[in-house]
Write a structure and sequence with these properties.
Helix content: under 10%
Largest sheet: 4 strands, antiparallel
Structural class: mainly beta
Distance between the termini: 27 Å
Order of helices and strands: EEEEEEEEEEEEEEEEEEE
Strand content: over 45%
Strand order of the largest sheet: 1-2-3-4
Shape: globular
Radius of gyration: 16 Å
Number of helices: 0
Length: about 200
């Protein structure tokens, strides 16, 4: 889920393959956009907000079942396709220069889509990657389901080290206001805060 500038939450609802809008003030829920599923895979997994250009804030949607990355205006109507050819993209993160990091769960990879549309693989053979975030120092964190770990990928993709292991189905991660990593350790029913020094 992401928090919009107007204070509403946009939430990815995988089973129905749609995004819903939750208004925190009125407590009302409405469909923001229905996505099309042309495959037999589960629906949309994660979304992120692109704020690198404050005049053109938009949603980035890894269209998981269809293997494409979409940009959606905050009106919920204006789509554009950023990239395609993914197996099952499940999460994205927008970098300071507008590049987009994408994890591809079935292809076991992390890629960077540059603003000019070119792509580069930063990591391969990740054990079922699910989410990706980057901190202000350029550390890229990918949680992986098959080994229950958090991997740190260098900004150029040259290094892949395990930061934390022994998690159970880690799904969802954020960087908190102090620059630390917070991960949902869903198999153990807890949130884990990892102090980044």
């Amino acid at each position: 889920m992401v928090l919009l500038p107007d204070g509403a939450l946009i939430i990815a609802e995988q089973r129905k393959n749609r995004l819903i809008r939750f208004d925190l003030h009125t407590r009302s829920v409405s469909t923001f956009v229905n996505l099309k599923n042309k495959a037999t895979q589960p629906g949309v997994d994660g979304i992120t907000l692109d704020t690198h250009d404050p005049d053109q804030i938009s949603l980035i949607i890894p269209d998981s079942p269809n293997g494409i990355i979409l940009r959606l205006g905050l009106d919920g109507k204006v789509y554009s396709e950023i990239a395609n050819g993914f197996s099952r993209p499940t999460a994205a993160w927008v970098e300071k220069d507008g590049s987009i990091l994408v994890v591809d769960e079935n292809a076991r990879s992390l890629s960077r889509i540059h603003p000019d549309g070119t792509m580069k693989k930063l990591a391969q053979n990740l054990p079922t990657p699910d989410d990706v975030v980057e901190d202000n120092s350029g550390h890229i964190f990918v949680n992986t389901l098959a080994d229950g770990a958090i991997h740190v990928i260098s900004v150029d993709g040259g290094q892949n080290t395990i930061l934390v292991s022994n998690l159970a189905s880690p799904q969802g991660e954020i960087i908190d206001l102090e620059g630390n990593l917070v991960v949902t350790d869903s198999g153990h029913g807890r949130l884990v805060k990892i102090i980044i020094r």
